[in-house]
Specification:
This protein has 13 helices and 5 strands. By secondary structure, the protein is mainly α. The chain folds into 2 domains: about 220 residues, HUPs (Rossmann fold, 3-Layer(aba) Sandwich); about 90 residues, Tyrosyl-Transfer RNA Synthetase (Orthogonal Bundle), CATH 1.10.240. The strands form 2 sheets. It has a 3-stranded parallel sheet with strand order 1-2-3. A two-stranded parallel ribbon has the order 4-5. Bound molecules: adenosine monophosphate and tryptophan. The site of tryptophan has 13 residues, from strand 1 and helix 6. The site of adenosine monophosphate has 18 residues, from strand 1 and helix 1.
């Protein structure tokens, strides 16, 4: 059976981009067709300036939202990255396979590091090595498919490269994974800045729809979305990015095609209104389930505890094999 792994970082409140670009497919398809693991990748949240209490809070919230979005612990494994030591164990070994140049070429690193330096801040070393930890997340489980938004494709390609290189040098150890993206909404853009991704880490948000935004807040944000000059409603990502974003969001929420949907509108206002209502309806059941889960924190903790146990058992043999293959002696009691 196909092995699927994906994750979400608790660096901010989850957004409509996370949901349409990733979580919805995990719940609707991936957990049913495959042997899937979904992870709150909390170690990744430490790569940028962080507040420990906030990371803890957001990690709990992300786990509840994964379940609220429809991940079913009977079908898949849901867990927290730092509960399974194998991720960090494998990451170090993969750092011995990756190169400095490769890391510095990563687009997300370049963008985030540049932004941090502009602010006069310092760049954590872990921001540079983060894609190696992500490769470890993926390779530890013998993952075939990694369902992610477009922004993560380059990182998954790095995981592929490291797997191939390791296998060539030290013998076949890792499955070579591939990224899969949703057909629409693989890159939901910020409603106020259609040239940038709707990213949760930015946090200030008239252009960001959060999964837990109240319906009226969602409506307001969508109605105020920046559109392009021009009058007729057409789907053109290059020339009309703001409009294209709304059409993609509407398509993702209603199951249509952006270009076809465009033909049904002769004003931006009507498109915005329908998009706002479609988003409100998509978020409604997630918010309702999230509320129920918040009332039962013991349930979520139990799921995470069981998930970590299952994940550990799955990752351990592969990570042990990588340690042996690269030349590390087995501990004495395991050597016999
Ligand atoms: P992150 O929030 O960076 O941890 O992302 C978790 C998942 O959501 C990844 O698969 C991302 O590719 C996806 N994702 C995040 N933001 C967006 C977005 N604006 N559009 C589409 N997918 C996204
Ligand atoms: N880097 C991913 C993001 O920012 C999150 C992530 C960490 C991930 N490890 C992963 C996604 C492994 C898929 C597989 O969205």
């Amino acid at each position: 059976m196909t092995r699927v792994f994906s994750g979400v970082k608790p660096t901010g409140h989850l957004t409509l981009g996370n949901y349409l670009g990733a979580m919805r497919q995990w719940a609707a398809e991936d957990q049913r067709r495959s042997d899937a693991l979904f992870c709150v990748v909390d170690l990744h949240a430490l790569t940028v300036d962080h507040d420990p209490a906030r990371v803890r809070r957001l990690s709990r919230q992300a786990a509840s939202l994964l379940l609220a979005a429809g991940l079913d612990p009977e079908l898949c494994t849901v867990f927290v990255q730092s509960h399974v030591d194998e991720h960090a164990r494998l990451s170090y070994v993969l750092e011995c396979v990756a190169t400095d140049g490769e890391m510095r070429r990563m687009i997300q690193y370049r963008e985030k590091a540049a932004r941090e330096r502009e602010r006069g801040g310092s760049v954590r070393l872990s921001l540079l090595t983060y894609p190696v930890l992500m490769a470890a997340d993926i390779l530890a489980y013998g993952t075939d498919d990694v369902p992610v938004g477009i922004d993560q494709t380059q990182h998954v390609e790095l995981a592929r490269d490291l797997a191939v290189r390791f296998n060539q040098r030290y013998g076949h150890t890792f499955v070579v994974p591939r990224a899969t993206n949703p057909a629409v909404a693989a890159r939901v853009m910020n409603l106020q800045e259609p040239a940038s991704k709707m990213g949760k880490s930015d946090d200030v948000g008239p252009g960001i729809v959060y999964l837990l935004d109240e319906p009226d807040v969602v409506r307001k944000k969508v109605m105020r979305a920046v559109t392009d000059s021009g009058r007729e409603v057409v789907y053109d990502r290059q020339a009309r990015p703001g409009l294209a974003n709304l059409l993609e969001i509407l398509a993702a929420c209603t199951g249509g095609e952006p270009a076809e949907l465009a033909g049904g509108y002769d004003s931006y206002g009507a498109l915005k209104k329908d998009t706002a209502e479609a988003v409100v309806e998509v978020l409604r059941p997630v918010q309702e389930r999230h509320k129920e889960l918040c009332a039962d924190p013991g349930y979520v903790e139990g799921v995470l505890q069981e998930g970590a146990g299952k994940a550990r058992a799955m990752a351990r043999p592969t990570v042990d094999a990588a340690y042996r293959a690269i030349g590390l002696l087995p501990p004495v009691n395991a050597a016999r």
